[in-house]
Amino acid sequence: MTEKEIIDKWNQGLGKITLAKMYKRQYNLNIRIMRADIKNRHKGKYINEYEALSIVENKIYKYIRKKINIIYFIKLK
């Protein structure tokens, strides 16, 4: 999931825990597909829900901070 997909789904009303579960599922599926190749069978690391939640939260908080800064600078002008 890209940052844009996460923000769009969050704006639609999904919670960050639901987004973390979706992110974890997609990320681990990509790792599983990558490990199917014999050459890469030991590469990549599966993530758990807490790691996925921290990634999703960081992307959401970065978006909120950027949005607040834009609003703040508009008020100054």
Describe this structure in words.
The chain has 77 residues and is mainly alpha-helical. It has one domain. The chain has three helices and no strands.
Any chance you could write out the topology, listing elements then pairs?
Layout: H1 3-12, H2 16-35, H3 49-76
Separate helix tally: 3
Which whole number gives the mean pLDDT? 91
Number of strands: 0
Please give the largest β-sheet.
none
Low-confidence stretches: none
Structural class: mainly alpha
Classify the helix fraction into a percent range.
over 70%
Distance linking N and C termini: 36 Å
What is the domain tally?
A: 1
The global form is elongated
Order of helices and strands: HHH
The rounded Rg comes to 16 Å
Proportion of strand residues: under 5%
Keywords:
77 residues; mainly alpha; elongated; 75% helix
Give a short summary of the structure.
By secondary structure, the chain is mainly α. It has one domain. The chain is built from three helices and no strands.
